[in-house]
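Quick one, probably user error.
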């Protein structure tokens, strides 16, 4: 278990706060984030980079906001000196509202709208990553129209298999992301000659939850080789954005070694003498969050035993969407795991299943459980499916907790809708 969460007298705590106290005050389901664990995760990455790279070449760490874009979390990241990788106008506004310096904001994604682009230019963000020829045209046209220079990088699709879940693989030739090197070369040459366009370099991101360093090696080698070719052709190259993707331990998988990752950067990227950008998401927040939930019913059939929780796939969709495995722990853990339960939510789909045949102690209705490693792509992917209000979010620090998002109230949501008076 991550150090931000502790078992004290058999009771699960977050930064010294008993989870039952949070459940009593805020209700369930509720996301709980340990700020000390965030600190530790960020420091873990920074120190690996410090060990591998000279002080003058430390990377810009742009936290991938899609993993968790709560203002409290983003503000905490800003305080740790991080920038942000955003993929929508909404995330850009969140990052800025949280105090992240636009000079440290990178804008990625295949479908930026005109509004997104203009907003990014007016905010003078660090870099827009270009994913297609028509997008380059659009960015160039808007930049010239409003007279603000667009700092851009081209996203390379290196055709590398990230060896992760198909739905989160982004660097294969047949994925919608980025451009092949041979398609970037003429666009790059053309873009450097355009007014109001400043071409900074390349970006690459091959997928998420990578557990092996080999795909990174392959992607970084290909990126470096292409970068060298551009420089040899007399083109400017000042930055390389290496994306995110570092995996964490959910079950028994091996997490990639950060020193090994940093060494790859030293070996393959440092010699190019460019600014290095990283876009980690999951690595920084994944193990710092849990979803606190209560058992509503124990339901027994002739073949199975179900734990029906008050959290559902609308609160945490990863198991339903990717068959993702999340550890589930009783908040009070004082018995052996000698029962097998199917752990399900209340949503009306069989996919609303967190775990099948999970070994847990004998439990009762009302018991509090924690679904672990839910800090990344947990709340940020939640929905109101089945008219379920979005859960609360809480942050802990040194024995204290603060609500960083109120639980939604269905009545407030109804106010956003209108019955047409035909
Ligand atoms: N940069 C870009 C351009 C990305 O598309 C992503 C994630 C990241 C950085 C951050 O990747 P990370 O370091 O978190 O692996 N919802 C899925 C994960 C989707 C990842 C999408 N892109 C999940 O729950 O597993």
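Nope, works fine. Designed sequence:
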């Amino acid at each position: 278990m991550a150090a931000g969460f502790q078992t004290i007298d058999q009771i699960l705590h977050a930064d010294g706060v008993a989870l039952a106290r949070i459940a009593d005050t805020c209700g369930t389901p509720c996301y709980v984030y340990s700020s000390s664990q965030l600190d530790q995760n960020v420091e873990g990455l920074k120190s690996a980079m410090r060990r591998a790279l000279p002080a003058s070449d430390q990377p810009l760490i742009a936290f991938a906001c899609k993993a968790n874009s709560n203002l409290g979390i983003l503000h905490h990241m800003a305080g740790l000196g991080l920038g942000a990788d955003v993929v929508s106008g909404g995330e850009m506004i969140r990052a800025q509202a949280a105090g992240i310096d636009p000079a440290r904001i990178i804008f990625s994604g295949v479908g930026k709208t005109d509004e997104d682009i203009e907003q990014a230019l007016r905010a003078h963000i660090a870099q827009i990553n270009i994913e297609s020829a028509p997008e380059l045209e659009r960015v160039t046209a808007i930049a010239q129209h409003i007279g603000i220079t667009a700092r851009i990088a081209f996203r390379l699709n290196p055709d590398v298999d990230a060896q992760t879940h198909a739905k989160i693989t982004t660097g294969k030739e047949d994925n919608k992301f980025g451009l092949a090197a041979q398609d970037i070369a003429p666009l790059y040459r053309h873009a450097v000659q355009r007014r109001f366009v400043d071409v900074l370099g390349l970006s690459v991101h091959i997928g998420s939850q990578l557990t092996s360093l080999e795909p990174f090696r392959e992607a970084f080698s290909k990126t470096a080789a292409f970068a060298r070719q551009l420089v040899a052709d007399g083109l400017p190259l000042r930055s390389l954005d290496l994306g995110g993707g570092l995996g964490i331990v959910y079950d028994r998988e091996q997490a990639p070694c950060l020193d090994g990752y940093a060494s790859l950067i030293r070996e393959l990227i440092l010699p190019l003498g460019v600014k290095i950008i990283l876009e980690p998401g999951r690595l920084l927040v994944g193990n710092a969050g849990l979803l606190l939930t209560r058992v509503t019913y124990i339901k027994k059939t002739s073949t199975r035993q179900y734990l029906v929780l008050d959290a559902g796939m609308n609160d945490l969709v990863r198991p339903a969407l990717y068959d993702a495995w999340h550890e589930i722990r009783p908040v009070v853990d004082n018995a052996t795991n000698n029962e097998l339960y199917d752990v399900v939510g209340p949503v009306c789909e069989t996919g609303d299943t967190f775990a099948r045949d999970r070994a847990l102690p004998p439990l009762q209705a009302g018991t509090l459980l924690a679904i672990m490693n839910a800090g990344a792509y947990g709340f940020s992917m939640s929905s109101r499916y089945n008219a379920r209000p979005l859960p609360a979010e809480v942050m802990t620090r040194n024995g204290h907790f603060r609500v960083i998002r109120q639980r939604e109230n269905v009545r407030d949501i109804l106010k956003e809708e209108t019955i047409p008076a035909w």
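Residues 64, 66-67, 85, 108, 168, 205, 208-209, 243-246, 279-283, 318, 322, 376-377, 381 surround LLP (CB under 6 Å).
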